[in-house]
TrEMBL record:
This is Cytochrome P450. The lineage of its organism: Eukaryota, Metazoa, Ecdysozoa, Nematoda, Chromadorea. It comes from Strongylus vulgaris (Blood worm). Belongs to the cytochrome P450 family. Coiled coil: none annotated. InterPro entries: Cyt_P450 (IPR001128), Cyt_P450_CS (IPR017972), Cyt_P450_E_grp-I (IPR002401), Cyt_P450_sf (IPR036396). Pfam families: p450 (PF00067).
Length: 202
């Protein structure tokens, strides 16, 4: 039950954030939809098998996770023996918390970190994955004992976002700017607010 609740909460929260980022970044949303229609089509069924064929969509999911950063401090770890990080010694039985926020928002690899820009995860050709930026991503924690549900969550995020944008266009409600300030409730939640959602065929 703990695994189920943990996975459900974090994945659904990330998908909620995705609706806000899509509403405030129409260019990105249109580009993802263009890739969806090109690879899957309007009536095709999204599955995890399409991920390798959809580099821009995958880059956008990375950027959603980076900007939402719903668990900024992540979970406690404990050293079982004396170790070090760089030149800093860490004795055995020391509690260690990965500061995910520092990596996602302040790593020198992520230039202009406050900008929502999926292209940072692709090379200049717009197709090849930028390994340098992808390797800095740590939304599922750090180390060997990171999120046990990472593989499933990645599939759910891909299928969820693709299904949504395959069928609907997401926009701000006129006169009501989207608020991207989070609320803390165990994880960083997006504020509840109205969005305009219309069928793609409309």
């Amino acid at each position: 039950m703990d695994f189920y609740l943990a996975g459900m909460e974090t994945t659904s929260t990330t998908l909620r954030w995705s609706t806000l980022f899509m509403a405030t970044n129409q260019r990105v949303q249109d580009k993802i939809r263009e890739e969806i229609m090109s690879i899957i089509g309007a009536d095709g069924k999204p599955t995890a098998n399409f991920r390798n064929q959809m580099p821009y969509t995958m880059a956008a999911i990375h950027e959603i996770q980076r900007c939402a950063n719903i668990v900024p401090l992540n979970v406690n770890h404990r050293t079982v023996k004396d170790t070090s990080v760089g030149s800093i010694p860490i004795p055995a039985n020391t509690f260690v918390i990965g500061h995910i926020q520092h990596v996602m928002a302040h790593s020198p690899v992520f230039k202009d970190p406050k900008q929502f820009r999926p292209e940072r995860f692709l090379l200049d050709d717009g197709i090849t994955t930028n390994k340098e930026t992808v390797e800095q991503m740590c939304p599922f924690s750090i180390g060997k004992r990171q999120c046990a549900g990472e593989a499933l969550a990645r599939v759910e995020l891909f299928v969820g976002l693709v299904t949504l944008l395959q069928n609907y266009k997401i926009e701000p409600v006129q006169g009501k700017p989207v608020n991207l300030e989070p609320e803390f409730s165990g994880v960083l939640l997006p504020k509840q607010q109205p969005l305009r959602v219309t069928p793609v065929s409309a």
